[in-house]
Predict the structure.
Amino acid sequence: MEENDELTFFMNKYSGALNEPIIKEFLNDENNRDLFIEAVTLNNQEKMNELDIKFKDFYHRARLYKYIQSLIKLYSIDFDKRTRKKCLDTLLF
């Protein structure tokens, strides 16, 4: 099987997973995309392990970013509620 055929077969077989936003974002990076193509077409275990490590790091960072983003948003909402309550309590007395 040619390298291009192997890549096409892989892309068709795992098209659902490859359409996930996190994977699309990961493969937007040219280095990651090249490593992915190399790992799939050459069926090289060392490249697959390297790709796996890079994806795990990327996924961890994405999750951490999402957590911090949510934390900031929720803290801002909570802060606004407390501030409004203090203002309302002060006006009532």
